[in-house]
Amino acid sequence: MSCSVLKSFGLEPKHPSLPAADKILSDGYRHVVVILLDGLGINILEKHLRSGDFLRRRLLCSYSSVFPPTTTASTTTMLSGLSPVEHGWLGWDVYFEQEDKTVTCFTNNLAGTEKPAAFYHVAHKYLPFTNIAEQINNVCGKNTATIVFPFGENAFPKLADWLAEIRRQCLLPQRTFTYAYWEEPDALLHKHGTDADCVHRILVELNNSIEKLCDSLSDTAVFITADHGHTDISRSFLSERYPDFARMLVRKPSIEPRAISFFVKSEFLKKAQSAEKTPVTCEDTVFSYEFNRLFGKDYVLFSRKQVFEMQLFGPGKPCANLTGIGDYIAAATGKRTLFWDKTAKPFKSHHAGLNRDEMLIPLIFSGRK
Predict the structure, then answer these.
(1) pLDDT value of residue 276
(2) CATH code: domain of residue 161
(3) Looking at the domain assignment, is residue 95 inside a domain?
């Protein structure tokens, strides 16, 4: 989506744009808005809204999120126009070899703690990027593009104020682009699961509020999309239930519980020799054999070599400071989700894996000339 926006404002994106969005943007709308509703995958949209409701009625198509389909990776792609392998913000917790620390990218805390990782922002230092508003403003003028968040500097934490700011941008006389992020329904989905009444209520509220906003605008193209979907999960704890497996690791797993980066001790990267009936392939190491024996029904395991060959984290040249991809990446395909221990948040629903409900996101459009 970001590549379509960049293209429409005269910039050259690094990746292919979305044809459905390109066709609309070629009509030359004065104002362009992209609203990203965190967690609003196609499955959540269809589960909680009727076919005649605004967000479903205005659905253009579905398309795939990046891998992993998670807020850190996907929204950074939206903000930068880069793939995850290019920008390096792979997931919630990323290992930085430069610091020998695993850091929660958004909060700048050491993973699993509230302790700052450094006096500077680690991810911004090693994985810098120019956001979409800056890119557009550098070419079209500094007041052309803006970003509207419910947190951070110049925040709009109340839905009504957030919507009002989007509308204000669309009343300006010059051509504008507005990227507006909202953190629901993701937060409620994590806490209560995909079938919860509170999720339904917030979706109805968002549907009605955004419809009212769109009806109030003229000469404006409004796209509504998401970063990922959601799936209900069951939880397992590696360090407690599988201590022998956990001892194979150099450090705690990182990235996401459903898109796991494993750094493995060298002795477990040797060729597997099993005494059991399960056959060992020529590709099997001690680690991969054991992982597939324990978790193969719920995860697909990729070696580091496979990850780069298949461009699992997207196309493009890997970021120079990218150190978060370990010896193996495990991508969830079932409901079972692997956490390190019981200090993890008691999520009922999650994302970042490879199943349809996590990957497919909507492209919704409303506009009038």
Answers:
(1) 56
(2) 3.40.720.10
(3) no
Range of the domain at 216: 2-88+127-231+356-368
Q: Which of 107, 46, 45, 79 is nearest to 181 (CA)?
A: 79
Q: Which has the closest alpha carbon to 29: 221, 169, 224, 222?
A: 221
The CATH number of residue 254's host domain is 3.30.1360
Q: Which residues contact 147 (CB under 8 A, 6 or more apart)?
A: 79, 131, 132, 133, 178, 179, 180, 181
| Same domain assignment for residues 194 and 242 | no
Percentage of the chain modeled with pLDDT above 70: 97
Distances (CA, A) of 245 to 68, 271, 278, 288, 324: 24, 16, 18, 11, 21
Phi, psi of 181 (to 5 degrees): -105, 135
The model scores a pTM over 0.90? yes
Domain assignment of residue 94, yes or no: no
Residue 120 lies in a domain: no
Give the model confidence (pLDDT) of 133-187 as tens digits: 999 999 999 999 999 999 998 999 999 999 999 999 999 999 999 999 999 999 9
What are 243-268's pLDDT values in tens digits?
A: 999 999 999 999 999 999 999 999 99
State residue 368's pLDDT score: 85
Q: What are 11-69's pLDDT values in tens digits? A: 999 999 999 999 999 999 999 999 999 999 999 999 999 999 999 999 999 999 999 99
Residue in the block written with tokens 């990850």: 307
